[in-house]
Each structure stands twice: as C-alpha cells, then as structure tokens.
Specification:
Length: about 260
C-alpha cells in the first residue's frame, strides 16, 4: 500500500475498529518501498515462490525500510487520531523467532538467503500493548536462535501472530479483489472456501498470493475463526470487509467439524 489516501483510510478504519471495542494488531509489509531502496543501492530484487530472495546486504535494507520508514509512517498515521499505536519488530522481546527457510520451486529447494520460517511466537509484548489500549504495529523481522536476523513474509507473520493470539479474524489486504478461481482464464473470485479446499488449491498458486493463502490456512487451522482476503486498493476495505455483510473478497474458514 503506497497510495497516501489509501493509507489514511486504512489508519482511520483501524482506529475506528479500536474505538468500537475491537483489539486490532497491524502487521505490515513494505515490498514496493524495499524494492525502490534496493534499486537505489544497486541491489537486485528477485523473488522465488512469492518470497524475496534476501542477501545479507539486502537484509540491512529490508530492516531499515520496514522498521525505520514503513512502520514509522503507519504509527504516525494511526496516532493522528490519538495516542494509540506503538511500533515493534519481531526481534523485540523475541516476539518472532525463525529459522532459515528454503522455498520449493518445481519440487526443488531454493536458497532464499536471509528469509526466515517462523518457529515460535511470543505474544507477551503484543498482549501488554493490547491490554493497555494500544494498537501494536509489527514489522516482520525475526531473530534466529543464535541471534541471526531474518526477513519474514508479512502475511506469514500475520497468520502466525493471529494464531498465537487466538484472534477472531485474520485480514489480509492485497492488490487484487480476492483469490481468483481459475486465473488467468477467469476473473471469478472464490468467495468462500475451507482450509481443506486450500490444501488442493495451494500447489497451483504462485507469486504473492501463495504466502497469503498459506497464512490464511495456517490461521484457521490454529483456531482463528475466519480469514479474509480483501482488496486493499479499495478505500475503507478493512471496515467494509469486517462489518458489512456481502462485502467482496475471499473468506477462508476451518474445515467442517474442526
């Protein structure tokens, strides 16, 4: 999300939800901003299975952009409405612990560099902020068991944090209306599916939608009641997607009897 008006609408929705009694946690990415900064440093942006290949040099840029730029801007926009938002990264208070992650492309493992797979979530710091009425804004940078620093996909981090908090709903904002049924042959959106349905669909997904739908499956399998994939290009999509019946998007629910 790089459009200023959309960012302000998002911040308005998050604070409105907080004032309505919801306890939101924001987990943000920063793909376009990271790519732009990498280009300024003469570093290549490359993706495998929807994840950014992150060299040690790129990791320095990722860390700087996520926690020093994108997070600061989000916190500032939220706090225009009152003293609500507090920023932290997955490194802080060991909120996110990760190990090195290898993607699989055409059945073969691919080294992604400093990309992490979350192994543990400690929600203590996030819970303290929530209990004091704040809105935690989390940058998806994690630490390893030996102090390594890992770049974690924001959707993956959001799903893991939602599961660890036993959240009611995971919301994933993206740049399409939802999960396409048969892209590129059809632009029909899948309105509702189960975690089991995703088991069958995930092998055929690629690009950025793959980690988003994996995060939704992880969350609902861990006890989150619903996961919603919404079009973040639409102003106030967050508010509409959560509170307006029939709002467009894709809903993922647990398997029957789960």
């Amino acid at each position: 999300m790089v459009d200023d008006a959309l960012k302000r609408a998002f911040a308005h929705d998050v604070v409105a939800l907080r004032l309505a009694g919801v306890r939101p946690v924001v987990v943000h990415g920063g793909g376009p901003q990271i790519s732009a900064q990498l280009a300024r440093h003469g570093l290549e942006s490359r993706f495998e299975a929807g994840l950014r290949v992150t060299t040690p040099e790129a990791m320095d840029v990722v860390r700087m952009v996520l926690s020093g730029k994108v997070q600061r801007e989000l916190v500032g926009l939220l706090n225009e409405h009152g003293p609500y938002a507090v920023g932290l990264t997955g490194e802080d208070a060991h909120t996110l612990t990760a190990e090195k992650h290898y993607a699989r492309v055409a059945g073969e493992p691919v080294d992604l560099g400093m990309v992490g797979n979350i192994t543990k979530v400690d929600t203590a710091a996030v819970q303290v902020l929530l209990d004091h009425g704040h809105i935690p804004v989390v940058s998806p940078v994690a630490r390893g068991e030996e102090g390594e620093i890992y770049n974690v996909n924001a959707d993956t981090a959001a799903g893991a944090i939602a599961a660890a908090l036993d959240a009611e709903t995971l919301v994933v904002l993206t740049d399409v209306p939802g999960l396409y049924a048969h892209w590129p042959d059809s632009d029909r959106i899948v309105e509702r599916l189960t975690a089991g349905d995703l088991d069958l669909l995930l092998p055929g997904l690629d690009g950025g939608m793959l980690p988003k739908m994996e995060a939704c499956r992880t969350a609902v399998r861990a006890g989150v009641a619903t996961a919603r994939v919404l079009d973040g290009r639409v102003p106030h999509a967050l508010w509409a997607g959560l509170l307006e019946p029939g709002a467009p998007g894709t809903t993922v629910v647990p398997d029957a009897g789960a």
